[in-house]
Amino acid sequence: MVPPGGKPELTALEQLRLGLQIMALRALGDLEAAEEAVQETLVRALEALRNGRPRDPEKLGAFVRGIARHVIADARHARQRSAPLEAVLESECGTSLDDPLAALVSDEERDLVRRALTELSAGDRDILHLSFFEGLTPVEIAERLGEPALRIRKRKSRALRRLRRAFSRGAGTCHELESSETDK
Amino acid sequence: MAETLSCDAVIDRGLIERYVAGTLSEAEVQAFESHYLTCGRCQNELRMAAAIRDVLPGVQEASPVPEISPAALTGRWLRQHARVGAVAAAIAAVLVGVLLVQPARRESLRHREAVPETADVPRAEVPSGEVRAVEEFRWAAVTAADLYRVTLYDAAGGVIWQVDTRETRAALADTVRLEPGALYLWQVDARVDWDRWVSSELVRFRISEP
Fold first, then answer.
1. B116-207 CATH fold
2. Which of A11, A39, B118, B196 has its CA 20 to 30 A from that of A155?
3. How far is A77 from chain B, CA to nearest CA, in Å?
4. Residue ranges of B 106-165 with Cβ closer than 8 A to chain A
């Protein structure tokens, strides 16, 4: 973390750290490899910032994302060169059952979400499953379940509101998000 | 150039769910990643999505949706009132001439509503059984309830009358005429959260014939 009074470009980059962790973890599926990719990205981004890039601060996200994609691609190539073929195939095909992003969730947050999910109706849990595992939109879910799309949208929103309420009670135990909030 | 997103657009388009499920197009991934890198709110939503994906399958396995036979859910009324699973089961039993619903089945259907076992539910008290006349409905209060909804059904499951009240009694509307000898059913729902209702058992009563 950047100490109070640190340089502004470092502060700006530190605020990207969690987002970069999410991106790298999702792409690489491994916490250690993701941390290395994040660090490498931040070092390259810092160098670019000191050279006056990007010129538009509003483009910082897209700019750093571009760096991260290169770093992640390099990490993948390096792994392909050294890892056993089975491991490479598994990571490329996404056959692992574990969601790598779960590494960014604390046990307390997990318990809070579990409790909130238990209190939802089975139908609402089904809607969440279709959303978060199959990536279906409310319209697609409505078609599958034979219900009006508006009703599905409302049920999903309501369920997510409850989950958010529960999750926010545990926020900060693992990541101090609130202090780095850059909500738009 | 990646599309510029707002948090509202992310939520509206379900980008978080589709991102973790891996169903976004490359252009959408590019736009969304560019957005969430500098957005604490969306980062938090992504972590919550990860938590959901981590624990939801286990919760679903622990609480499987019970099978409900088509016979138990026959009829438009039952489809319209599927929210109240226990009532639907009881009404269905009346319709097929089974006056006593098997306790195990009732429990199974009630579980579908995910009402906590410890939930305080309203208890419909009056009228019940054979009565001379019905002027009002009364029930036992529910601690957390801020609103009650009384529903009166005929023997075929049709809704005859419904009223909302904050009291634990409701006078039957003058416009409702109950026929002597006919079977009626009623129940009371209690609102215990802004969108959460718990239901009483379905109670049968009959107006005695003169």
1. Immunoglobulin-like (2.60.40)
2. B118
3. 20
4. 112-114, 116
